[in-house]
Description:
Helices cover 33% and strands 21% of the residues. By secondary structure, it is of the alpha+beta class. The strands form three sheets. A seven-stranded antiparallel beta sheet has the order 1-2-3-6-9-10-11, sandwiched between helices. A two-stranded antiparallel sheet has the order 4-5. A two-stranded antiparallel ribbon has the order 7-8. The protein is globular and about 55 Å long.
Amino acid sequence: MTKGRKKRKKQVSLSQAMIAILLVVGIFYCYNRLDQKAGATTKSYPTVGTADIGDPRRTVTNNSLPNQEKEYTGMILSFNRSLHIPNWVAWELTADEVKGTNKRVDNFRPDPRIDGCATLEDYRNSGYTRGHMAPSADMKWSVKAMDEACYLSNIVPQLSKLNSGVWSTIESKCREWALRDSAIYIVCGPVIDGNPLDYIGRSGVYVPSSFFKAVISPYADPPLGIGFIVKHKGHKGGMQTAPVCIDEIEKVTGHDFFSSLPDSLENFLEAQNNFLHWNFDNNDR
């Protein structure tokens, strides 16, 4: 009996020792994870802070392209009179603007302020839809802004499957991001590379083979940037297959985006290409 008791006591002691070791290891692991998390939250990165960020919509246009730059109620654009489409269109989108309640209008018409603007006849029976660059749904905060978004200076020929497909999905996602982060800045347009899919209408409106969109959220913590290049014909896999860094879009287009930002912040944002990071909640970053 005595030997059995001693053996059981020895087994209990070993079990207690193992539990103690596991507790120590667990505590060490938890503290180590907390240290890592603390380190992540104190990681240094440029922020807006009190810095003067100017007007991030302002874009330096590729100097080889014709450029008429005009400002409207809800957007700024650069128009290419030779190709009859915008080089780029830029706007700020805030959470309050996303919540706007004005109904969509489709008052498409030539822009009286623009030389070389396309006409409605150019699009008629062309096989292409009138694709907004700055979408109507981003302008529902203002009747005037939405009306001006229907100027053909804000329009590029798009195949219906793109206009209502991945392009529309990216637009919707941008509105989600604006609601979450309070404000974002967007620049989008055609990739003008001398290899169009087509020219349409009597004016010879350029139909691009791809489109770009550059998006920044400078007030997020940390600040976020991302770009998209979408193939006009046959883009597969949805928007998650289209992300690129903004630096890459600048190389492809020759434009300089978000140049009013402090250099450290601009460089930080334009080097990013993390689509998953954009889809985290603020508390998960």
